[in-house]
Amino acid sequence: MSLFPKRLRAWTAILMVLCMSGIDVAPAAAGLAPSRVSGATSIVATRDADMLVAQRMLENKVVAQKLRDYGVAPADAQARLASMSDKDLHTLASASKGLPSGGDGTTGAIIGILLVVILVIVILKLMHKDVVVK
Q1: Is residue 24 part of a domain?
Q2: 74 lies in a domain?
Q3: Domain that includes residue 64, residue range
Q4: Which of 41, 57, 63, 123 could hold 96 in an S-S bridge, CB 3.0 to 4.6 Å?
Q5: In the chain, what percentage of residues exceed pLDDT 90?
């Protein structure tokens, strides 16, 4: 006696064909989702966007250190930023776009070199070659 009778197998196959053909009936549609302002953003005007860019620039370690070297306190820089005209603020924000936002890239280079060295060692081991460091 079979665990799965022939008649049950036939009905299962028919049911699977019907289910799988029913899944692919609707055509796929793609498009761009419309943008909308979320509750977390406070950027309404270009001045707000420029102010945000300039404030992030002041948070950069290099810029903050240079300001301290020139004797400018962070609170004074923020006060001056708030009193700037729209044109000056936009000029400052445009000039700050070239500043690095993260590390200086040496960490990624070191990791890349280590990965290449490890890859070479693994390939040599797979070829049954000895790796000797003297």
Answers
A1: no
A2: yes
A3: 46-98
A4: 57
A5: 2
